From TrEMBL, chain A:
Keywords: Membrane, Transmembrane, Transmembrane helix. This is Vacuolar protein sorting-associated protein 55. The lineage of its organism: Eukaryota, Fungi, Dikarya, Ascomycota, Pezizomycotina. GO terms for biological process: late endosome to vacuole transport via multivesicular body sorting pathway. It comes from Didymosphaeria variabile. The chain crosses the membrane at residues 7-25, 31-49, 70-89, 95-121. It holds the Pfam family Vps55. Its main location: membrane. It is found in: Membrane.
From TrEMBL, chain B:
Keywords: Membrane, Transmembrane, Transmembrane helix. InterPro entries: UPF0220. This is Vacuolar protein sorting-associated protein 68. Belongs to the UPF0220 family. The gene is VPS68. The keyword tRNA-binding does not apply. It comes from Didymosphaeria variabile. It is found in: Membrane.
Length: 127, 173
């Protein structure tokens, strides 16, 4: 079960992720890589919003799952966007290779923290 | 149910679970994102200093048309309710709902296939016939890959949604 160690570990990982992304922006004097943080922060939002908008227990109503599927589609879109955006910026010579790698790794750490946080603490809200 | 099987190998059981369906929808979003950002990559690369073409070759609106067609086709296909395709077999839903659904679906698939074919046309007519070499030809090749990815994403989403129908059906019985 989620204890104090989990919270400490997750916050460490989150801090390292933010450190990597901010370093990738500040070391190279090019702040475009900060977009990765925004991408990963809004990535779980469509899932939550559409999960609230639809009633997943209603199996006979087929219109409900369309909204949920749209939210999942958008989440998948944003997760890949967090990796694709630095690669795109590197490919068009806007940022350097080091900045691209650091922002991708940092973004993955941030997103992993968000996901594992919701996984660990979801049981408290469910009944 | 199993006596109606046509093939020797049964459909694996994991193909019908709700988790596979969820993973399919996520994968469709990821594939669409890859295709979309490949298009953006081609466009931004064309205006960047990485583009070495000497008489400058840039992406014009012509390169965008196949991608727009593919995305529109995907939108049309996946906004159709799949259960309406066989609606005419039920007597209470008349007025040719299935016929209309098939027509719209045909338009969607035509847009999708037209997008892929159009990207190949752009690649051949704009880049191969003009005999450009590798770094320049990326603008055509990336376009084809992007449209293929959008088509693949559409197929994955279609399969995932059909899976959902069967899953719901099994649950309802």
């Amino acid at each position: 079960m989620a204890g104090i160690k989990t919270i400490i570990g997750l916050s460490f990982v989150l801090a390292i992720g933010f450190l990597l992304v901010i370093l990738s922006a500040a070391l190279f004097k090019n702040y475009l890589t900060l977009l990765v943080v925004a991408t990963y922060v809004i990535a779980p939002l469509p899932n939550w919003i559409c999960g609230r908008a639809a009633n997943p227990d209603d199996f006979m109503e087929s219109s409900g799952s369309g909204v949920v599927d749209f939210g999942r589609f958008l989440t998948g879109f944003f997760v890949v966007m967090g990796i694709a955006l630095p690669a795109l910026l590197y490919h068009s010579a806007t940022i350097q290779a080091g900045a691209a790698v650091m922002s991708v790794v940092g973004g993955l750490l941030i997103y992993g923290t968000i996901i594992s946080f919701t996984l660990f603490f979801q049981e408290d809200q469910d009944f | 149910m199993s006596s109606h099987r046509l093939f020797r190998f049964p459909k694996p059981a994991w193909l019908n679970s709700a988790n596979t369906r969820t993973a399919g929808v996520y994968a469709a979003g990821a594939l669409f994102s890859l295709g979309f950002f490949l298009l953006i990559d081609v466009a931004s690369w064309s205006r960047s200093p990485m583009n070495p073409s000497d008489p400058a070759v840039h992406v014009t609106f012509v390169d965008w048309i196949p991608g727009i067609c593919s995305a529109l086709g995907m939108l049309v296909i996946n906004s159709i309710d799949k259960s309406r395709l066989s609606a005419d077999s039920f007597s209470y839903s008349g007025n040719g709902v299935a016929w209309k659904a098939r027509l719209v679906l045909f338009l969607g698939f035509a847009l999708l296939a037209g997008g892929l074919a159009g990207s190949v046309v752009v690649l051949v007519l704009k880049y191969i016939v003009a005999e450009y070499v590798w770094p320049t030809i990326w603008m055509g090749v990336g376009n084809v890959i992007a449209n293929g990815l959008v088509m693949l994403s559409s197929a994955v989403l279609w399969v995932a949604q059909n899976m959902e129908d069967e899953y719901t059906y099994n649950l309802a019985l």
